[in-house]
Amino acid sequence: MNTLISNDSKWILTEEGTDPETIRQNETLFALSNGHFGTRGSLEEVGRTKNYSHSEATLVNAYYDSEPIQYGEWAYGYAKEHQTVIPVPNGKKLTIKLDNERFDLEAGKTTNHKRQLDLKKGILTRTFTWENTKGHRIDVKIERFVSYDYPEILAQKVAVTPHDDDCALEIVTGLDDLKDLGQASEIESNDPRVKTQKGRRFRSEKIKNTQNKMLHIETNNTNLNLIVGEKNQFSSPSADYSTKGNEESWEVKAIKGETVVLERLVAYSNIFDDNSERDGIAQRTSTLLNEASAIGFQELKEKQIKHMEEFWDMSDIEIEGDDELQVGLRFNLFHLYQAAGRDGNRNMSAKGLTGEGYEGHYFWDTEMYMLPFFLYTQPKIAKRLLNYRYTILEEARNRAREMAVDAGALFAWRTINGKEASPYYPAGTAQIHINGDIAHAIHTYVKATGDKRFGMKEGLEILLETARFYAAWGHYDEKRNGAFVLNDVTGPDEYTAIVNNNYYTNLMAKHNFKYAADMVEAVLESEDELGQEVLSRINFKKKELNNWKKAYENMFLPYDEEQQLTMQDDSFFHKEVWDIENTPKENFPLLLNYHPLTIYRYQVNKQADTVLAQFLFSDEFSQEQKARDYEYYESVTTHDSSLSRSIFGIMASDLNQMEKAYNYFMDTALMDISDLQSNTKDGVHAANMGGTWMSMIYGFGGLRLVGDTLHFKPRLPEEWKRITFKVQFRHRVIKVSISKEEADYQLIKGEPLVIKHFDEERYLK
Ligand code: BGC
């Protein structure tokens, strides 16, 4: 059993002791966030925690700076600028001094050191007893949370109690020293999954004339502004209060057994780009701090608990029969919920707000891995995530023009501001499947929620522009009996690049054509005003509808008749098979140990590709076909990407290979807790966390949306007695409870509906 997980709670991760390695590792796992900002689970004694910390970063979603990408050799259309999310002033900083001696884990003696992340409440608590060199002891308890009700606020409470005698106590707070501010973390690495730019990235200035302490920061090149303010309340009125530079301090003669308390609030305002708004926003932030401080830590905490209760009530999954897994599972759901941008303008990065890995970029991960969880349990957030794509549609149009495609839009492979930020196009821009991924997500969202308004407006426009792009990128190939082909693309598997007719991409594009054609027909038929406005604004021509239908019908989908296998692309089976078994363990992931061209020359997969296509459209393939393809592609897959295992697990359930499904699921659900990919230090693997939810609901629950009906084909692994979860579907809430013997579907909110349990129809009311 993982040491973080104990038997006595299905909600709490517990770390005990002061081992630097463990504390450093848990910095990512204990990160707290709310979609607007997040802060890693680092210790409060900032600056004295080097051995205990990989990065103490506090990150604001989409607060980034940019710099020109330096290429050794440039070519037309390459991505121009890095976009790098940068740590903002660290509001966790607290210094405790006893008899003028400063606490840290290497001074004096610390005992009973314990940190607990309470998933149910969304609160991180640290407790310990510290003995200084003079033998005086204090008991300390520090609580921290990132508020959902006040999304700009980080709340902390430190409570110190002298243990054996009265003592001289001092507590000092402050944002990091101004001179250190604006440095991107010192992380330097050749690992393309890290890639943080070093150096000073923003200017900062104190704001005068506000009631609370306020700092204005502005990024160097993107000119994004942020106000960071703080407000502290100390319990003892007799304390000696002083300020020095950035710091505030309270000195007090503390009495044995009596607890002194500091409540600390730090606010990170919303990002703004017009500097003239600064004073108004500073004022607003200051007022917010006053309000929150008047409410007080205790009540803010109760609100947080209530918010989390509502979240869990809808989004929890219960497993009977495996307590370790139960916590592990909840840990994933917790982080998913924390990571999603909620304002419609920002999205969800591959690491959430738990680390600087992948520079805070948004990928296809959102639509294909994280979105299903939101779609079926928090549809309002799902809509906001999709709306972000609408906000960058214009950039996607520009990108298509840059790629000499004269119609439609191509979404950036990785980005914050909508512009392509991937400097390596073979595994970046070439992944044009991102268009089809977004289209698929929109289609599923509209079907599952019934949100016609989004479907007829933002959704429609995106579906049409992505379809236009594919129509212009591809062509009819006479040598393939006139089939519609898409050449020189990269599929999800990044160990195979720039190929013709990647099966996954072609299938996604094919469906994109269908979604677009169906929507246009629906608009024309219903004369929906919103829809018609979109068609006329983007200058839709009727002949496009016929083009899409024709491309849909003639899409080339490579298949090897001789082996009866679906082909990943035109050339895949012509390559030699990589000898995975005899590759030394330390050479994985291959991307860190072999030149791309070495990898591309072989049949070897980083992640699910064809198998992913078959999962998404599972009713379009026979079970026999899926089983054959699964066996083949599994044998050439390294799972070097964290996006792989969950899909293989779900498809194992689909094929009724339950032991395999269970094993993949265990790796998926515990990936970050057990640091399976050896890079959790850079942030959690958010896509895999979404994969965990999908494994439960799509895998073991067997949920598929077929036409307009929810189909369930539940199958439990031997190890479990029962799983219970809820899904939302078109303003209804359905509670599903599955054991080995039976499946129970209960409609707990909304109008009656028919669902399918295997082949049997069930009427829920
Ligand atoms: C995967 C991509 C993924 C990216 C961000 C890469 O390792 O191959 O599919 O989008 O990580 O998570």
Automatic annotation (TrEMBL):
<dbReference type="GO" id="GO:0030246">
    <property type="term" value="F:carbohydrate binding"/>
</dbReference>
<dbReference type="Pfam" id="PF03632">
    <property type="entry name" value="Glyco_hydro_65m"/>
</dbReference>
<dbReference type="InterPro" id="IPR037018">
    <property type="entry name" value="GH65_N"/>
</dbReference>
<dbReference type="InterPro" id="IPR012341">
    <property type="entry name" value="6hp_glycosidase-like_sf"/>
</dbReference>
<dbReference type="InterPro" id="IPR005196">
    <property type="entry name" value="Glyco_hydro_65_N"/>
</dbReference>
<keyword id="KW-0378">Hydrolase</keyword>
<feature type="domain" description="Glycoside hydrolase family 65 central catalytic">
    <location>
        <begin position="330"/>
        <end position="694"/>
    </location>
</feature>
<protein>
    <submittedName>
        <fullName>Glycosyl hydrolase</fullName>
    </submittedName>
</protein>
<feature type="active site" description="Proton donor">
    <location>
        <position position="494"/>
    </location>
</feature>
<dbReference type="Pfam" id="PF03633">
    <property type="entry name" value="Glyco_hydro_65C"/>
</dbReference>
<keyword id="KW-0328">Glycosyltransferase</keyword>
<feature type="domain" description="Glycoside hydrolase family 65 N-terminal">
    <location>
        <begin position="14"/>
        <end position="268"/>
    </location>
</feature>
<feature type="binding site">
    <location>
        <begin position="364"/>
        <end position="365"/>
    </location>
    <ligand>
        <name>substrate</name>
    </ligand>
</feature>
<comment type="similarity">
    <text>Belongs to the glycosyl hydrolase 65 family.</text>
</comment>
<dbReference type="InterPro" id="IPR011013">
    <property type="entry name" value="Gal_mutarotase_sf_dom"/>
</dbReference>
<dbReference type="GO" id="GO:0004553">
    <property type="term" value="F:hydrolase activity, hydrolyzing O-glycosyl compounds"/>
</dbReference>
<dbReference type="InterPro" id="IPR017045">
    <property type="entry name" value="Malt_Pase/Glycosyl_Hdrlase"/>
</dbReference>
<feature type="binding site">
    <location>
        <begin position="606"/>
        <end position="607"/>
    </location>
    <ligand>
        <name>substrate</name>
    </ligand>
</feature>
<dbReference type="Pfam" id="PF03636">
    <property type="entry name" value="Glyco_hydro_65N"/>
</dbReference>
<keyword id="KW-0808">Transferase</keyword>
<dbReference type="InterPro" id="IPR005195">
    <property type="entry name" value="Glyco_hydro_65_M"/>
</dbReference>
<dbReference type="GO" id="GO:0005975">
    <property type="term" value="P:carbohydrate metabolic process"/>
</dbReference>
<dbReference type="GO" id="GO:0016757">
    <property type="term" value="F:glycosyltransferase activity"/>
</dbReference>
<dbReference type="InterPro" id="IPR005194">
    <property type="entry name" value="Glyco_hydro_65_C"/>
</dbReference>
<feature type="domain" description="Glycoside hydrolase family 65 C-terminal">
    <location>
        <begin position="703"/>
        <end position="761"/>
    </location>
</feature>
<dbReference type="InterPro" id="IPR008928">
    <property type="entry name" value="6-hairpin_glycosidase_sf"/>
</dbReference>
